[in-house]
Design a protein that fits this description.
It contains 13 helices and 22 strands. It has two domains: 354 residues, TIM Barrel (Alpha-Beta Barrel), CATH 3.20.20; 73 residues, Immunoglobulin-like (Sandwich), CATH 2.60.40. 30% of the residues lie in helices and 22% in strands. The radius of gyration is 22 Å and the shape is globular. An eight-stranded parallel beta sheet has the order 12-11-10-5-2-1-14-13. The protein is of the alpha/beta class. 46% of the residues are buried.
Length: 433
């Protein structure tokens, strides 16, 4: 598929709404109509100030607990509000030029989903996969009932749900657990939705496997780049930039056919500031995400180096999905250096939109020092990462470069033209050619 033109400039600010507004797990029973989506709208100026071009929203539809156990795809979760609150959020986003990405949970539904309740009562069960002891569940999670994606009625249903919310103002969909759904299902659904919404964007949540083949078979525009995410934090922790270089080689191959969604944090993984052994290297992770090809997504709170560890237990996601203050100005993190760095690097990326599909080439590679060129026809940058206790000092002539302009670096270096690469221990630099 050829992605919509607007995605070339897309940088998402991702939030998990139920946690963001304190609706889950603090208020696990969706009984009160709190109109909490207004709290999300109050943060749109923050997203704009950060430099994002859109907000990527976690699950918002009626559910029993965490949002991924949907009970009604056509209703906003009452813990968040109602249709009017959604319309207000979209209108406020539009006023600011922000796009809106929704989270579609179409692999499974909650056990209070109407058709499932009918099936359990002895009615038509054709919408659901059969398991050994009744209906199949998603990866053994009780209460998440797997849909039967071979049923044409399920295809029609998902087409209608997606189209309904696109008509209401959404710009695209993140497709949850897309790796668990047959590619043939998406290949039936997405072309039908695109007929009415040719500028919509669809990104599948895919963890492992042949990304390019999945994108082609399922007709996605993009998938989540978990390979690169893992290589970023792992190579920084282990001082093994050979792993990162290999992952970037793979990443370039993906860019030949599609542009992946890149990230160093999301609602399903340990926060990058907690994942990295040395907090100084959070900057290196951010530099990587914002200087290589991809559609970047910043998980809310990472711009302030929020901490949080995901645990494999019931409630193990709660720490990485915290409640935020009602308004940005109520946050204790205002003025945080990490926020300013996000602004600076996002601004750099938006001034160089060719980075969306840029390829990388290693110029200098050791276990603990990595210099790469990231380029497209329209321009090029040189990025230097140093996680060594020794400085990285090299003449640019060693790379066949006469001189370059320093545009970013650790320690806030002054912008200037130089013919020498000089990066302090555990520092980094970005130079424009």
């Amino acid at each position: 598929m050829s992605e919509p033109d607007w995605v070339q400039h897309a940088i998402w600010w991702q939030i998990y709404p139920l946690g963001f507004v304190g609706a889950f797990p603090a208020d696990p029973v969706p009984t009160a109509d709190e109109h909490r989506l207004g709290r999300v709208a109050a943060w749109l100026d923050h997203a704009l100030e950060l430099g994002a071009s859109g907000i990527a929203l976690g699950p918002m539809f009626a559910s029993k607990t965490h949002g991924y156990d949907t009970t009604d795809h056509y209703a906003i979760d009452p813990r968040l509000g109602d249709d009017s609150d959604f319309d207000h959020l979209v209108a406020q986003a539009r006023e600011r030029g922000l796009r809106v990405l929704l989270d579609g949970v179409f692999n499974h539904v909650g056990d209070e989903f109407g058709r499932y309740q009918d099936a359990v009562a002895g009615g038509d069960g054709s919408w659901f996969h059969k398991g050994r002891n009744g209906f199949a569940t998603f990866e053994g999670h009780e209460g998440l009932v797997t849909l039967n994606h071979d049923n044409p009625e399920v295809v029609d249903y998902v087409v209608d749900v997606m189209s309904h919310w696109l008509r209401r103002g959404a710009d695209g969909w993140r497709l949850d657990a897309a790796y668990a759904v047959p590619d043939t299902f998406w290949a039936q659904v997405l072309p039908r939705v695109r007929r009415e919404f040719p500028d919509a964007w669809f990104v599948g949540e895919v963890i492992h496997g042949d990304y390019a083949a999945t994108v082609s078979a399922a007709t996605f525009d993009s998938v989540t780049q978990y390979e690169l995410w893992k290589a970023v934090w792992s190579s920084l922790n282990d001082a093994n930039f050979h792993e990162l270089d290999h992952a970037l080689g793979r990443h370039d191959e993906f860019l030949d056919t599609f542009v992946p969604m890149t990230f160093v944090g999301n609602h399903d993984v340990t926060r990058i500031a907690s994942r990295l052994d040395d907090v100084r290297h959070v900057e290196h992770a951010l530099v990587l995400m914002l200087t290589v090809g991809g559609t970047p997504s910043v998980y809310a709170g990472d711009e302030w180096e929020y901490r949080g560890v995901k645990e494999e237990r019931f409630g193990g996601d709660d720490e990485v999905r915290p409640e935020f203050p009602a308004r940005p100005e109520d946050s204790e993190h205002l003025g945080h250096d990490a926020f300013r760095l996000h602004q600076h690097l996002i601004g750099l990326r938006r001034r160089h939109p060719w980075l969306h599909a840029a390829r990388t080439t290693a110029l200098h590679l050791t276990n603990s020092q990595y210099v790469y060129r990231t380029s497209a026809d329209e321009g090029a940058l040189v990025v230097a990462l140093n996680v060594d206790d020794a400085p990285l000092r090299m003449s640019l002539s060693e790379f066949g470069i006469g001189s370059a302009r320093i545009v970013a670096g650790s320690g806030a270096p002054a912008e200037r033209v130089t013919d020498v690469l000089d990066v302090q221990p555990h520092g980094w630099a970005v130079l424009a050619l």
